[in-house]
């Protein structure tokens, strides 16, 4: 449900490293994650602070983040042989037992709007969900490839919490 920039380093750490990465002025630039594989064993990676600051603030204020349950990428950046593919988020996978799964969203669908807000990329998707509370219902429009063309489908998704 998100698209965060990852800071990769040549700093050696252990598999359970945690903490922050700071610049030469002492400002935090990243929060270390163990969920990202840099391809080189034991190198530290971090989420860019600019991407996660809003979420951290929400959590620190006692609020929870809504959960949709997809993995996706910008449709225009996805591998398409079809020039007629709509702009939006191409869903690469739907997590089992997630709100998206129960609403009937499928891999290959392209999310084009949420609550009548046009979705062009993952940042638009994250912004559309940021202020939504768990249990709230959103209307999502997507395009699904048919035999000859893309057809619009309207989903009603009840957001959860991860």
The main β sheet shows up as: 6 strands, antiparallel
Order of helices and strands: EEEEHEEEHEEHEEE
Query: What is the helix tally?
Result: 3
Q: What does the radius of gyration come to?
A: 18 Å
Terminus-to-terminus distance: 10 Å
**Gross geometry:** globular
- Output the structural class: alpha+beta
Helical fraction equals: 10-25%
Number of strands: 12
Low-confidence stretches: none
Average pLDDT, rounded to a whole number, is 79
How much strand?
35-45%
Structure write-up:
The protein is an alpha+beta fold and 162 residues long. Helix content is 16%, strand content 38%. The chain is built from 3 helices and 12 strands; from the N terminus they run E-E-E-E-H-E-E-E-H-E-E-H-E-E-E. The chain has helices at residues 49-60, 99-103, 122-130; strands at residues 6-12, 20-22, 28-33, 43-48, 66-67, 70-74, 89-94, 110-114, 117-118, 137-145, 150-158, 160-161. The strands form 3 sheets. Strands 6, 7, 8, 9, 10 and 11 form a 6-stranded antiparallel sheet that branches. It has a 4-stranded antiparallel sheet with strand order 1-4-3-2. The longest helix has 12 residues, at 49-60. The radius of gyration is 18 Å and the shape is globular. It starts with 5 loop residues before the first strand and ends with a strand.
Quick structural overview:
The chain has 162 residues and is of the alpha+beta class.
């Amino acid at each position: 449900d998100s698209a965060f920039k990852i800071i990769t380093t040549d700093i050696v750490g252990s598999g359970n490293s945690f903490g922050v990465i700071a610049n030469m002025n002492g400002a935090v630039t990243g929060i270390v994650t163990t969920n990202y594989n840099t391809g080189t064993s034991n190198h530290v990676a971090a989420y860019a602070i600019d991407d996660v600051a809003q979420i951290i603030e929400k959590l620190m204020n006692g609020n929870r983040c809504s959960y949709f349950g997809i993995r996706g990428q910008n449709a225009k950046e996805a591998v398409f042989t079809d020039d007629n593919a709509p702009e939006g988020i191409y869903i690469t996978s739907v997590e089992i037992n997630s709100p998206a799964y129960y609403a009937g969203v499928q891999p290959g669908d392209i999310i084009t709007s949420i609550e009548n807000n046009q979705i062009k990329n993952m940042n638009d998707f994250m912004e559309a969900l940021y202020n939504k509370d768990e249990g709230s219902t959103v209307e999502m429009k997507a395009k699904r490839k048919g035999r000859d063309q893309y057809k619009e489908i309207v989903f009603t998704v009840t957001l959860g919490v991860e």
